[in-house]
Amino acid sequence: MSLTERLRAALDRPAPPTLLAGDLLDGEEVTAAVPAAVLVAITRRAEPGVLLTVRREHMRTHAGQVAFPGGRVDPEDADIAAAALREAEEEIGLPRSAVSLWGSADPYRTVTGYRVVPVVGEVEPDLPLFAQEQEVADLFEAPLAFLLDPANQRRMSAEFRGARRHYYEIGWNGRRIWGATAAMLVNLTRRLEA
Predict the structure, then answer these.
(1) What is the model's pTM?
(2) Are 40 and 105 in contact (CB under 8 A)?
């Protein structure tokens, strides 16, 4: 069974108990979370990749970070998947009709107050995409197998808001994929391994 077939099947199974829930520390106050969605767009290749963006340095949150295309759910969005597709179309010019949706993965709570649901789908390779200049500095494709390999997912720690926090980081081709994006990839890996 191919990696994409295994991943697609894993999305239909119950969540394993080892998933990362979010960036909040035990005992940290939980406030109302803003619903958000990202698109994990997997390219239909012999060696599939994942489309990722680099956020502009001036962004209010997660400036300069590697991220999946996505953002907050708007009132006009029919559901989480619609929000992820709208955001991907706005940020990288990915037509909604070009995505074959597989389903949603596990929500992740960010320290910045978002409850992010990754929506997973497949796209044709080499689509004529573009970086929306207000939000996206760059876009690239990284190999799915590399991103989901536990050997490439390093657990790190740093001081933030007066507490030692742990996070994951994946280095690929000079790119630093970390924080919520890396955590969602770790969760996909854990689903595959369950």
Answers:
(1) 0.92
(2) yes
